[in-house]
Amino acid sequence: MKFLKFVYPILAATWLATPCWAQMQNLPINSLPPPNIFGGLAIMEALNNRHSGKDFSYNTIDYQTLSEILWAAWGINRDDGKRTVPTAMNQQNMQVYVLMANGAWLYNAQNNNIEQVTAQDLRSYLQTQEYTQNAPVFLLYTTNGNPAGMTDAMQAGSMYQNVALYCAAKGLNNVVRADFQKSDLAAALGIDEDTILISQVVGYPI
Ligand SMILES: Cc1cc2nc3c(=O)[nH]c(=O)nc-3n(C[C@H](O)[C@H](O)[C@H](O)COP(=O)(O)O)c2cc1C
């Protein structure tokens, strides 16, 4: 197993050096404001407020809030590049897609931006339950590891729980959702269906 010590840094460097999908396609890249990592609700109060809130207004989520949601889910919180959630052997093999009215975007924590995958509004693939109709933001958690294995599902669970706690602290509603049109959504995003683990809808309550 000792060789992994050398293999992982090489794999990570190769991945970081690879031009991202949006850059290759000349698709828009939206910079996000830095997340405000100070203050907020005390952790015990956030835990006490955590719940699935199944009503959503049309109110959109501003980019400051989006930046913080994404940072909670999958941001980098240390100088060594490690994240707000743990991953098995620090593989960091997860991705977060953001689906909004202005298209589907992939979060890039290193650059603190979102990179457009398509300008199409793909939210309808996730609006399979009535209460989600007005919601402005859907997160999609995917892996380029081993989706059938346990660790990727656990990692996705850490990600959606971080977002749920952020929502609890900020008065946002959220629901973790397995009920969506997975294969159609995967095709629209141009990704393998098996890489999709779970989704989460986020927005302001009515
Ligand atoms: C893995 C997972 C999948 C879920 N899928 C759905 C779903 O497809 N639709 C839905 O309305 N709620 C879904 N939920 C939310 C649960 O219904 C909810 O967490 C549960 O009723 C407990 O309520 P609470 O989150 O307020 O404690 C899911 C939750 C988890 C953890």
Give the secondary structure arrangement, pairings included:
Layout: H1 4-17, H2 21-25, E1 29-31, H3 43-49, H4 63-74, E2 94-100, E3 103-108, E4 113-118, E5 137-143, H5 150-170, E6 173-177, H6 182-189, E7 196-203
Antiparallel strand pairs: 1-4, 2-3, 2-5, 3-4, 5-7, 6-7
Helix pairs in contact: 3-5, 4-5
The site of flavin mononucleotide has 9 residues, from strand 6.
Notable features of this structure?
binds flavin mononucleotide, disordered N terminus, 206 residues, alpha+beta, NADH Oxidase
How much of the sequence lies in strands comes to 15-25%
| End-to-end C-alpha gap | 53 Å
The largest sheet has its strands arranged as: 1-4-3-2-5-7-6
Under the CATH scheme, the architecture is 3-Layer(aba) Sandwich
The overall pLDDT average reads: 91
Fold-level CATH name: NADH Oxidase
Q: Could you name the CATH homologous superfamily?
A: NADH Oxidase
Structural class: alpha+beta
Radius of gyration: 17 Å
Number of helices: 6
- The succession of helices and strands, N to C, reads HHEHHEEEEHEHE
List unreliable stretches of 5+ residues: 1-18
CATH class: Alpha Beta
Question: Which cofactor or ligand species appear?
Answer: flavin mononucleotide
Query: Main sheet?
Result: 7 strands, antiparallel
Number of strands: 7
In the residues, how many domains can be counted? 1
